[in-house]
């Protein structure tokens, strides 16, 4: 049960840290992440949601609730208005659940689902901005200049952080089942 679990404290703290690191790493490595014509988007917050889904076990973290909260905070913090993230984070949590029911849990299926999640998140973000006229980038330019480097960076994050996050969740859920 989530209310009695260590995850009650650990999950929101980890979510805050990942959210903070997304912005901080983008600022610190701006010359690397955003060198024309490329734009690489750090998605550690999304990584935290996907990993939490795979490692929560029987605890059942209210991921959709946290996804809405994270979306509100991301929208207000980064743009000053409620925008896309309030819808995209919960949508990706839902997509993760749908995809995970089709596969047996393993490292490879987790990385595949995360890959699909990041691609869907970035594509929907691009599509919305293209529809309202914020960007005029072609789909080919988007795939080459934004999506490819973003997927590469976030897959590196996944590989590097998979086992440490797994260990944290195992510790937090130990004795809870």
UniProtKB/TrEMBL annotation:
Principal location: membrane
Protein's cellular compartments: Cell membrane
InterPro entries, per the entry: Cell_shape_determining_MreD (IPR007227)
UniProt record similarity statement: Belongs to the MreD family.
Membrane topology designation: Multi-pass membrane protein
Lineage of the species this protein comes from: Bacteria, Bacillati, Bacillota, Bacilli, Lactobacillales
Protein name, UniProt field: Rod shape-determining protein MreD
Keyword terms, alphabetized: Cell membrane, Cell shape, Membrane, Transmembrane, Transmembrane helix
Coiled-coil regions listed: none
Any one Pfam family match given in the protein's UniProt record, by short name: MreD
Listed transmembrane segments: 67-95, 107-127, 139-165
